[in-house]
Every structure is written in C-alpha cells, then in structure tokens.
Amino acid sequence: MLAAALRPAPSLAAFSPSTARSPPPALLSFPPRPHHRLHLSATAEGAGTTAAQEGASAPPVDEARLAQFAADWQAARAEKDDGKILRLPVLRANSGGLIVRFNSLQGFVPNPLLSPAHWCKDPKRPIQDVTKELVGSPIYVKVVEVNEEERKLVFSEKDASWSTHSSQVKIGEIYDGIVSSVFHYGTFVHLRFPDGNYHLTGLVHISEVSWDLVQDVRDFLNEGDTVKVIVVNVDLEKSRIALSIRQLEEDPLLETLDKVIPLEADQSSSAGIISSPSEADLLPGLDGICNELLQEDGITDVQFGRQALEKRVVSQDLELWLSSVPAKDNQFKLLARAGRQLSDELR
C-alpha cells in the first residue's frame, strides 16, 4: 500500500515576517475610535440639517449676536435713566401682563402697570381678555427695571401715561371717574379725560369721601362705581393726584349757618333772628365749654356771634359742630344747638 503523511496547511501567520512576535488574532487590539457629536443648525428655511461631519468640532459662538444683546441691555439702561417714552410692539399676552419687543430683547409689562384706559373699557370684563386684543399693536411705555444678570426687563405703560397727561391736571378741576379699588385708607379713582379715555388714577383719602363719619370706605364706595371728584393736589415728583368727593358737596355746617342763621337782615320763615346774645340766655353749658376752650393752647379769645330760634325742635341735648373749612384770620366757626335755640361762635 501506498502510505502518505498529511501535513496541515500552512496558516496565514506563516506568511508574516513577524509570525513569532504577533499575538493571536483574538488578542489583537485597535486604537479607540473618536466619539463624535451631531450638531444641528437651522437653515434659512428652518429645516434641521447636519452641520458637523464625523470628527468635526463644535460650531463657533455667535459673537455678533452676543454683542447685540449686550448693546441692547446697555440701551435699555440708558432709556431708563433718560425716562424716554418708547413705542414697542406687543408680541403676546399672558395672565400676568404683556410681552413686548425691545430691539433684540423681550420685556414684560405687568397688568398693574398698564394704563387705566384698558381697565375702563369694560370694568366688568377680565383684564386678560382685554390684553389679548393688544397683541400685534404698539403701546407706549417707559423702562422701569433693567437687570441683565436675572434677564429681567420691565416696562410701565402707566408711567408713560403720567408723563403725557399729568401736566393737564390742575387743582380745582372736576373729573368723572370710575372707582378702581377700595382700601381702608381710601379709594383709587380712574380719571376720564376730554378724549373719553381714562389715562390717570388718583386717590380719594378716607377723610375726603364724605362729610359724614367714614369708618369703612366700603360702606360708601365699591369697585366700578362712577363718581365725580375734584382735584385737591398734584404731586409731580411722586406722581400722585389727591382727589376729593365731599368737597363737591356743601359742608352741612355751613349750610345750617347760612339757612338757619341768615347773614341778611331779612328774616326767613324757619328761624327768628336775635341780634344780640344778651337778648337771650346762652345755651345751657355753652359758657362752661367756652371757658374750657380758653384754657387750650393757641386759643386766645372766644366771641359769641349770632343766635336764632328755630320753630321746630331738633334736639334738647347740646350739640356742637366745628366747621372743617380752613380758618380765616385764625378764626374757627363753631355752631351750638339745643332745642330751638342756635348760636354761632367765632374762636
């Protein structure tokens, strides 16, 4: 028989010049592949496309845009310092106010800083419904807060309205108004201007609500009430307007003095005039009160004035009223009444 010895086929390693030094294939190692990030950028049409291929570096920072932001924050601070009125477009509205555009920045106008012109279009309508209608329209505002670190840019339409319309308000002028809010110390009233809009808001202090004793303003006024007010003071520095309701009505004390104790010589049908206090007895207790008044600091003299007898009996008790009208020549009006008898004193 023919016998043959079979030898194994040579391995691939046999053809390598470094067969003896090469590790087995299972132990071969390769340098790690670099990790790559996928960067997306918006095209002019707005489509997302691959901006970096495998191995590419991150895109450079938009230095021009950052420079524009910095310039606009600086511009906002300058506008605040100058107090300039700006005309800005309304981008959108939310429950708290309006978002407006200032160059490359967006700012906020809180609802409380909106002009009363919006609130008074329909006082019963939620302000959020009104502000939605302002989207897309420009409004006039002033910068009131700039905080670049907190990205806070706040505008006020009320401040712009004050700068525009406050010079038109004069002491003694009478306005129609709408009560906006009521507090224990008074009530705020929106003022209606000749153009039919409500541009400014003033305060009616509790002491100027009524001649009657006012312990709670809400007993006299409610939000949405229409009232007539008279301007008693304008503080341009503090942007405040002081108003009065009661000064549009006669002081009840003065009305009593004029009607019950006429200044003219002719006699009215409701009262008889006694020309001299000596012709009638003083009201019981009045002399003692006058003596006590003389003991007070600042009171140097008490003079008895006119007296009268009413045909009707008002009260048997002694009642005193001190006029709230500013004193003239350091003299105050005091009216005393008991039964049918009245006395007018000066002090």
UniProtKB/TrEMBL annotation:
Cross-referenced Pfam families: S1
Region (Disordered): 1-34
Gene3D superfamilies (alphabetical): Nucleic acid-binding proteins
Compositionally biased residues, Low complexity: 1-21
Superkingdom in the source lineage: Eukaryota
SUPFAM superfamilies named among the record's database cross-references: Nucleic acid-binding proteins
Domain S1 motif intervals: 83-158, 172-246
InterPro entries cross-referenced by the UniProt entry: NA-bd_OB-fold (IPR012340), Ribosomal_protein_S1 (IPR052757), S1_domain (IPR003029)
A Gene Ontology molecular function term of the record: nucleic acid binding
Protein name: S1 motif domain-containing protein
Organism: Oryza meyeriana var. granulata
